[in-house]
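Thread amino acids onto this structure.
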């Protein structure tokens, strides 16, 4: 190999490195763009015994939407034993995930089922202490009727 070939090979390597670097940067930029837009409003539907849905409440306050996002992020979700469930009282979508809510009237706790867009169902329980605030955000009403 003569000196000219070595210089050409070195220059070609620089071009390839620049292309690889540009590709990696582009992938990072594109992955940042794929995050869902924050929800501006969430429509909550009350689900009847026959499965019919009617609009119950629309959440428009950004603080309430942020509350739901944080609540769901901090919950302990379990995927065991949730293949079949009945008794949905409320339903809504938030950040491309569907949530079904079941109210346990005997102890005023709430069971939430999360159905991500990619499939699979998870369940979390919101106990009485937090259930009142959660219920008020999704319905605009008090859980205990007080």
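Threaded sequence (146 positions):
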């Amino acid at each position: 190999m003569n000196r000219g070939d070595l210089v050409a090979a070195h220059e070609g390597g620089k071009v390839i490195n620049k292309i690889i670097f540009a590709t990696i940067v582009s992938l990072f930029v594109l992955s940042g763009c794929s995050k869902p837009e924050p929800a501006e409003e969430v429509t909550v539907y009350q689900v009847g015994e026959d499965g019919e849905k009617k609009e119950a409440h629309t959440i428009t306050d950004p603080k309430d939407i942020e509350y739901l996002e944080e609540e769901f992020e901090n919950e302990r979700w379990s995927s065991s034993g949730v293949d079949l469930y009945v008794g949905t009282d409320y339903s809504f979508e938030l950040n491309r995930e569907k949530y079904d809510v079941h109210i346990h009237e005997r102890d005023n706790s709430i069971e939430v089922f999360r159905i991500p867009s990619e499939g699979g169902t998870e369940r979390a329980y919101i106990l009485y202490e937090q259930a009142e605030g959660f219920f008020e955000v999704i319905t605009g009403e008090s859980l205990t009727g007080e």
